[in-house]
Specification:
single chain; alpha/beta; 20 strands; about 25% strand; globular
């Protein structure tokens, strides 16, 4: 039996947890079939979106469901062939949109965001990583006064929770923040505290190197099963079994399958997101752009521009539909007339999503030696450092900085 803590998943959440545990003097081994940021963590927009406290399941959102099914290339869609499979998840999603659940989810999200923002700054100092961070803010764009006013309640909530924003209601003023925008954008909100990393894969690899420097191990192997033992957990891998005293499951969109091995059923679904990364010189992007009515963003990545987003609730097995990435790029070229779209690389990733937009952070009800840290949806990078501190507290018997009840694996 090993005294080390084993983590399944070398994405941004698992790697951050490993680093925090190693910083606290623990022996850590991270298992992943592809290595550091080999899946979804490498292809996101690179944003630390701490003010995004509003859950996806908002009151009245289910009225839009028929429209999603009718527009397979819209910003939020469900492939018709997948609709029956996802029906139980959608029922929970609908319940999460009721005002009482929505409010409690938002309050829990805000608490996690404030912790994550502070934890990120601690993590940043630990790895001396300021050169990997851009503090250029974010510009949320709207095409009409009506569209803009419809978002004001959300912005008011963010302000009440301490997140700063500057409201812009003139296209000429908007152009001062981001030249080259189409004039259709008459309103915008600028959030100065928004952060981005220059490249999410490089960020994750930097954290992984810091983990290795502290003695942590990262092992590329396929996890094939889990089983409880008298003194811990037996992890079956493609390289043979591993006996560990404590196990943390942080495998993103694949985590619920591993939880099922332990005996827990957690309603995780997959938001398939698409993007295209354009090479340096594609556009002079001054800040992170969010095209709010179209469900996608443009961000600076690796000196180029990454155009991506949308939500396709389609599971893990369906083949990618890269027409979605093409549609987003076409829209981006309309909205940024000077954008050069040649030479791009398409990508699809699997965001792990729970009905109430909150992650699972807590101990397995079936085995107290197993802990869960997954289901962050669009916010894995944003909440990674905060989740790491909470899980490390839990693993070491310390009192977490905030109540974990809203994130409990048993809440469903």
């Amino acid at each position: 039996m090993s005294d080390e803590i084993t983590i399944i998943g070398a994405g941004i959440v698992g790697t951050s947890i490993g680093l925090e545990l190693a910083r606290r003097g623990q022996k850590v081994r991270v298992l992943d079939r592809k290595g550091v940021a080999g899946e979804t963590s490498q292809g996101n927009a690179g944003a630390f979106a701490f003010q995004e406290i509003v859950p996806l399941a908002t009151p009245g959102i289910m009225m839009k469901a028929p429209k999603w099914l009718m527009d397979p290339l819209g910003p939020l869609s469900i492939p018709p062939a997948y609709a029956l499979h996802i029906a139980p998840w959608m029922l929970r999603f609908w319940r999460a949109s009721w005002p009482d659940r929505y409010k409690s989810s938002m309050l829990a999200q805000a608490d996690l965001m404030h912790l994550s923002k502070a934890a990120f700054e601690r993590q940043l100092a630990q790895i001396d990583g300021e050169h990997l961070i851009m503090r250029d803010g974010q510009l949320a764009l709207y095409e009409s006064d009506k569209e803009y006013r419809g978002t004001l309640p959300g912005w008011k909530l963010r302000q009440e929770h301490g997140f700063n924003a500057t409201h812009l209601t003139n296209s000429d003023i908007i152009a001062e923040y981001q030249p080259g925008l189409d004039k259709r954008f008459t309103h915008a909100v600028f959030t100065p505290d928004w952060l981005n990393t220059v490249d999410p894969k490089v960020w994750a690899e930097t954290l992984a190197q810091a983990l290795s420097d502290l003695g942590g191990q990262i092992q590329i192997t396929e996890v094939q099963g889990l089983a409880s033992s008298e003194t811990g957990v037996r992890v079956e891998t493609s390289d043979g079994p591993i006996e560990t005293s404590r196990l943390i499951v942080a495998a993103g969109a694949w985590s619920h399958h591993l939880a099922h091995h332990v005996g827990d059923r957690i309603p995780l679904e997959t938001e398939r997101g698409y993007n295209t990364t354009l090479p340096p010189g594609a556009f002079d992007l001054r800040t992170h752009l969010t095209f709010s009515g179209h469900g996608f963003v443009a961000s600076k990545i690796g000196g180029g521009v990454r155009v991506g987003g949308a939500v396709e609730l389609g599971g893990l097995k369906r083949p990618p539909n890269y027409k979605r990435a093409e549609i987003l790029l076409q829209k981006a070229q309309e909205f940024l007339p000077g954008l050069r779209t040649e030479g791009g690389t398409q990508w699809m990733g699997y965001r792990p999503s729970l009905p109430d937009s909150l992650p699972v952070i807590g101990t397995s009800p079936s085995n107290p030696r197993v802990m869960y840290a997954f289901g962050h949806g669009h916010l894995g990078l944003t909440q990674s450092a905060g989740t790491a501190e909470l899980v490390a507290d839990l693993a070491l018997g310390a009192k977490p900085a905030l109540s974990l009840e809203p994130f409990s694996p048993t809440r469903f």
